[in-house]
Specification:
Layout lengths: L2 H47 L14 E6 L3 E6 L5 H6 L3 E3 L4 E5 L3 H12 L2 E6 L6 E2 L4 E2 L21
Parallel strand pairs: 1-5
Antiparallel strand pairs: 1-2, 2-4, 3-4, 6-7
Length: 162
Amino acid sequence: MSKQDILNKINIMDDKLVNIEEMIRNLSGQIKNIDKERCSSSKSKVGTSKSKETPSKEIVPKGTVSITKYSNVILITGDTFDKKKIIKNEGGYWSPQYKGWITKKNQSSVILKTNLEKLCETVEMFEKSEDLVIDNTRKTILLNNQLKNEELDSYGFMSDDD
């Protein structure tokens, strides 16, 4: 292939690239116009809906949650999917092993129970004197006062201090 052939192909590719860039600019403008139309139509809908009655968003308690207090942690099981934000806010994390949420056993457990009672039909409480043994796929942690590869605090959680 001669230098002239190569230059000709480069020029052809350059022209195609310019055409593609122009098409992208046109599509971008069209998308912006569509977004503006959607914004203006949703604003007008919001303005007209004020005259209509909006149904009150009343919290309807649903599902059953079991809270099991072990000597080292608390295990929360049951219908928890729509309550996971509350549990996470109290430091809970999902345990696939127990198909439930595990939290530290501390003062916030009372707040957690109160909040769950507002959202559930039934909150069952159980207490067990033994430690809960947790086996994560990444790290094996035995919470019955046996340490394996990790330093745990008095609640059986790994320390955040590094």
